[in-house]
Amino acid sequence: MNLLVFTKRVPATQEEELRIVDDGRRVDLSKVPFKVNDWDNYAVEAAVSIVEKAGGDVTAISLGDAESDDVLRRAIAMGAKDGFLVESSDAINDPMARACLLYNFLKKEAVPFDAIFTGVQSEDDQFASVGGILAAKLGLPFASMVIGIEAFEAGRAVIRRELEGGLQERVKLALPCVLGIQSGINEPRYVSIMGIKKASKVERKVFKAGTYREGVPGMIDLVRWVYPAKKGGAVMLQGEADGVCKELLGILKEKGVYQ
Amino acid sequence: MEDSSRLLTCIQCGRCTGSCPEAGRTAFNIRMMVRKRQFQRDIEAAIPWYCTSCGACTLRCPRDVKPSEVVIDVRSAFVEDGRIPVTVQKALENTYVQKNPWGRSRAKRGAWVEKAGVEIPHVGETASKRLLFTCCIQAYDPRCMVIPANVAALFSRAGYEFGVLGEEEACCGNEIRRIGETGLFDELREENAEVLKEYGVREVVALSPHCMNALRKEYGDLGIKVSHYTEVLARLIGEGALKFEGRYDHKVAYHDPCFLGKQNGVFEEPRSILRSVEGLELLEFARSRETSLCCEGGGGRMFFEVEETKGPRNSEVRAADAAQMGAEIIATACPFCLMTLEDAAKEKGQIVKDLSEILMEVL
Amino acid sequence: MQGASRHPEGERGVSMSYALVVAEVRRGFFEERNLDTIGLARLLGKEVKLLAPAGVACGSDDLSDAVIRAQVQETDFLSPLNMVRIIQKVIDTAGRPEAVLFTGSSSGIELASYAAGALNLPLITDVSGYDPEKGVFLKSYYSDKIFGEFKPREGTFAATVRSGSFKEQAVSKGAPAAETVLDAVETDPGRSFVEYVEEEKGAIDITKADFLLSVGRGIGSKDEIPAYEELADLLKAVLSASRPVIDKAWLPKPRQVGTSGKTVKPKVYFAMGISGAFQHIAGMKDSECIIAINKDPEAPIFQYAHYGFVGDANKLRDKMKDVLKG
Questions:
Q1: In the prediction, which pLDDT does C198 show?
Q2: What is the mean pLDDT of residues C59-79?
């Protein structure tokens, strides 16, 4: 079993106040710490768990800047056999461009695989699309929001995917396939600092993204960054309990948790 | 790695378990854990996480086995293996990224300074190169943020110069080392030590006994004097640099934090501070000083719940003890104790205050 | 392929006079979030053609200008491998649309990304705003802290639409939509639906819930819990709690939210009688929508909530039950 897992280094923006600079052209991430994309952590754990039981290898791949080596070492510390860095110093926003570049890379370098795992989405751009686009380009079956892997053998996989409101569906896919792994599918093992240091001894091959740019389209353009409409603090509901309840139900409906 | 020669000197006398705040209430048995380590037997995955790092076992061991360190070694093995409780994992990962276990923005670590009401310079700009070191909890929790602000105000009133590091400060790593993540502790220690060196810091006043412990005993010889703020305040009061005008007609029970009392021998200073306040009646718990009842907040317990316990939490017992003595207020000098005691105290109609809060009321 | 008449514009690939809305129908139910996709389609100012599997009701029949029926079962319709073939068939017969729109949901994102890859469509996901003058779409970054204004390049583009963003624009045209039936497509065996799996009622895992109704010390006593359980049932929410409630054993430990309990990120975190102690906040502050009910206007939880109400949680709970039942 040869599994590829895509992993991305993302800014840890949950707690930060972000500023737009350069006249709307750039978001200032200079003081923001970076970390591994949460979803990718689950994907690496899922892949490593499979090969631990069924034999095989996991290769971690990251498309990003030189610092993305961090997430490759992390994956290796978790049990991946090796890591490939497709180095690009610019952030490529368009998921189509990212997927096409990766497609070119996989083809040109003839990377063998039985399945490709990605995280459902990355915490920064939240496009949630690279896996699906790549699968289509490769002509492979695809499923995202995978919350359970029930069977994974030569030729087929049976998975459960998350729908809304607690409902799931069981789906069968032919292998090779591409899976978008959802958070919560497993409990990723902890990777200690010493473990990451040890992983540095394993070679991470570096490839230049420029080599695979041929035919990679730019299909969407970022015009500018903007701040969300001012929200201030909590919207405090006022009035009689009756009216407040109706307002609350309206909010719940809008959020899609109550019909 | 464990010093096996120390392990082998254990005579299984059981004084450790006898003083353990988790013994009897939970399945945690430190004497037995040391025994298992002597014979290199497996230890059940959840048990090592019950320890609160109070240090009572190490204090009372007649053979210098240092059982607290045995727990840390056992935890290290689990950490390197990657199999640790999810909540503890999160705390470690947060610390790795944001340098505090709550995962709050490092950039906001110094934000409390704006609410302090006094001018606070960067330690690099001071003549004394005296650093006021904040605990992660105090930097981010609105309830505890008043403590650094109070101490800053008290020091200013006493004309005692100090500065802060703001976002250049990282978690001291005391809890991180107790959790067994040695690699992460080393990184924090190196980072903080470098920053201290960069600004020529000569003295550190820690606002939390945990930070004081790490900086004083586990950072190696930095050539820097490390004190807890109560040691400083006690001296300032004694010298007459700090005087209080108001009265505080309340019965106050002082709770000795484990890292201040048991582990670092600071018992008198907090008491002398309280005695200097007019009208304040200082009460002593039956279990005080070296035998103070651990609040169960340390040793990573902020991030780990013991599933099965018999009887009430120690914090509830403490609140009940205080009520029984007729105390109105439980005073302490540690943010961990403050947070863990407050919840239980509310139920019993008790109020928990940091020493600095009492002092601010009589300033 | 040959028999059906092909739209002349389809051959040239020009036209783009319509917006294709891929309906999300699951277990015969026309999802409410389809209104957001229809709403955006209306904003694009084109004729709206709704694509749906055969034999299912699609809301009121006047929401779109046309309905195209694909002759596949609902579960085959939702397979990305088949959807590509279906959309290609639509293009062959009706010409290229300006846009192919999908719901912002588990199936929507699968279908949209796969279709974009197969048909080479510019793709913008989680669209929550549109400026018709500038022709830009608003897309969330960094969990809604920043938004990017994106513009697709020429040709048909694809998008998934965030639910709740364009519902108001889904106005009916007054006249019922014209229905056409699409020629059959062969389904791709590479992926097949096996069955639906309902949530297990056994072990509680609050981290997997979309909607948490969370109670705190402020509810007063254990006797109040059954009424909250009832409310949770009515709302289809999962009950959770802050530490004091768990400590008192009013609810079991797996339901605890906080640093020593579980960290949750549901779509909605509805906190009743919870003040917002630091360790609790750490366990839920990344919830998409936090609603807080507390008697104390100074309760720290209001600093983290998106919506708040100062009042008695138990009284509000009873009112909600009345409104839901009545």
A1: 84
A2: 92
pLDDT reading at C15 higher than 60: no
Residue ranges and CATH numbers for the domains of chain A are 2-212 (3.40.50.620)
Which is more confident, A143 or B1? A143
* Residue C118 and residue A104 in contact, taking contact as beta carbons nearer than 8 Å: no
Interface probe for A, chosen from B73, B76, B79, B140 (most Cβ of A below 10 Å), is: B79
- Regarding whether C143 and C17 lie in a shared domain, the answer is yes
pLDDT tens-digit map of B105-136:
999 999 999 989 999 999 999 999 999 999 99
More confident residue, C172 or B53: B53
Instruction: Judge whether A238 and A248 are in contact, CB under 8 Å.
Output: no
Number of folded domains that form chain C: 2
Which residues in chain B have Cβ-Cβ distances shorter than 8 Å to C254?
none
Checking if the pLDDT of A154 tops 90, the result is: no
Q: Are the C-beta atoms of A157 and A122 separated by less than 8 Å? A: no
CATH number of the domain at C253, please. Answer: 3.40.50.1220
A touches which chains (3+ CB pairs under 8 A)? B, C
Tens digit of each residue's pLDDT (9 = 90 or more) over C216-263: 989 988 999 999 999 999 999 999 999 889 888 899 888 999 887 888
- Kindly tell me if the per-residue pLDDT of A27 is higher than 50: yes
Residues 6+ apart with CB under 8 A from C165: C36, C39, C40, C127, C128, C129
Find, in chain A, the residue whose alpha carbon is nearest to that of B84: A190
**Is pLDDT at B141 greater than 60 in this prediction?**
yes
What's the Cα-to-Cα distance from C36 to each of B213, C187, C210, rounded to whole Å? 58, 28, 20
Q: Provide the shortest C-alpha distance from residue A15 to chain B (in Å).
A: 5
Put simply, whether A91 touches C (Cβ < 8 Å) is: no
Choice between C159 and A215, residue whose per-residue pLDDT is larger: C159
Distance from CA of C104 to the nearest CA of B (A): 30
Report the alpha-carbon distance of residue B113 to residue B207 in Å, rounded: 14
More confident residue, A232 or C215: C215
Q: Please list every residue in chain A whose beta carbon sits closer than 8 Å to the beta carbon of residue B83.
A: 189-190
A232 touches chain C (CB under 8 A): no
Query: In Å, how far is B88's CA from the nearest CA of chain A?
Result: 9
Cβ A192–B82 below 8 Å, yes or no? Answer: yes
Question: Mutate which of A36, A123, A189, A193 to test chain B, going by most B C-beta atoms within 10 A?
Answer: A193
Give residue B255's Cα distance to chain centre: 13
CA distance A235 to B191: 41
Bridge pairing between strands C268-272 and C289-294 = parallel
* Domain identity same for C142 and C258: no
Q: From the CA of B92, how many Å to the nearest CA of chain A?
A: 9
Residue C82 to residue C107: CA distance in whole angstroms? 13
Domains of chain B: 4-81 (1.10.1060.10), 88-235 (no CATH), 244-362 (3.40.50.10700)
Residues C214 and C174 placed together within one structural domain of the fold: no
| Structural domain boundaries, residue C65 | 8-181
Cβ–Cβ below 8 Å for A13 and C145: yes
C222 with C162, same domain? no
At A51, the amino acid letter reads V
Q: Encoding tokens for residue B198? A: 């960069």
